[in-house]
Design goal:
The chain has 9 helices and 9 strands. With about 280 residues, it is α/β, with parallel strands linked by helices. It has a single domain, classed as Rossmann fold. The relative contact order is 0.13.
């Protein structure tokens, strides 16, 4: 299968290429800067804001995994709603990728959506939501973006629905929870990264809150790769979204049964199995 990945050299893209078989998938890695080429594939440089720049790389592809962002937006603490340059550039990139997929006749688009598309569930219920107190965002949770970043993810899902229903391109919205670099690929990852940066001390209240949050939101790199592969192999979905988390006991993004039944996702990891960071 020929698969184009935008934003391919980030932490999500590398999780995919490190764990999926290069003999089964011929990856083209597209990013704004040159990066290592995968076995049997290639790495290309292009800017998603320029349709003519990216369009040739969609030719001959079966699917695109759209991970790329054209500019940084504020995180969940950013409640601004103004139309700014970074917001406009990200939406322009979305349109260009989807239009190129339609024009090139791709079978499917996998869009890196985010937990932030429904992030107000967390914002309005923290910290209780981190402690398995019955707060859930199920598969039918409406869009509740917590920021301009979350808004772009909600928009990308809706634009994907138009792509699927009007143009026949299968669409998968991957509402990714928390995928981290290999060094921090465990539910203590954010807490340990904070220790390494000097933000807090190990065992502090802030440290423990980060652990509690990640034990619900974590998706291991190998589970993320399997999640993506399930979508690449699927031929049944017209348009759908799925929560990208591991089989965490205290997950509040909760549509695992739907993902199992629809695309066959069977995560291998569970944040609750960890009681300390790796040594």
């Amino acid at each position: 299968m020929d698969v184009l990945i935008t934003g391919a050299h980030g932490r999500v893209g590398t999780a995919i290429t490190e764990h999926l078989d290069g003999e089964e998938y011929d990856f083209t890695l597209l990013d704004v800067e040159e990066g290592p080429a995968p076995d049997g594939g290639e790495s290309v440089v292009a800017d998603m804001r320029d349709y003519d720049d990216i369009r040739p790389h969609f030719e001959g592809q079966d699917a695109v995994i759209h991970l790329g962002r054209t500019a940084e937006l504020g995180g969940p603490g950013d409640r601004e709603i103004a139309w700014t340059g970074p917001l406009a550039e990200n939406l322009e990139g979305l349109h260009n990728v989807y239009e190129a997929a339609r024009d090139a006749g791709l079978d499917s688009v996998l869009f890196a959506s985010s937990n932030h598309a429904v992030g107000m569930v967390e914002v309005r219920n923290a910290p209780e939501v981190y402690h398995d107190e019955g707060i859930r965002a199920g598969h039918d949770e409406p869009h509740r973006p917590d920021s301009r970043y979350g808004l772009t993810k909600s928009y990308g899902e809706d634009l994907g629905r138009l792509l699927a229903e009007a143009h026949g391109v299968r669409f998968y919205g991957l509402r990714i929870g928390a995928v981290r670099e290999p060094e921090y690929d465990h539910p203590y990852g954010d807490a340990e990264r904070g220790v390494d940066r000097g933000d807090w001390e190990r065992g502090s209240e802030a440290y423990e809150e980060q652990v509690a949050r990640m034990k619900g939101l974590w998706q291991s790199r190998r589970d993320l790769a399997q999640f993506v592969e399930c979508c690449l192999r699927d031929e049944s979905v017209e348009w759908d979204h799925f929560y990208g988390v591991s089989a965490n006991d205290r997950r509040w993004l909760d549509d695992l049964e739907h993902a199992r039944e629809t695309i066959g996702y069977e995560p291998q990891d569970n944040g609750e199995e960890w009681d300390a960071p790796p040594e």
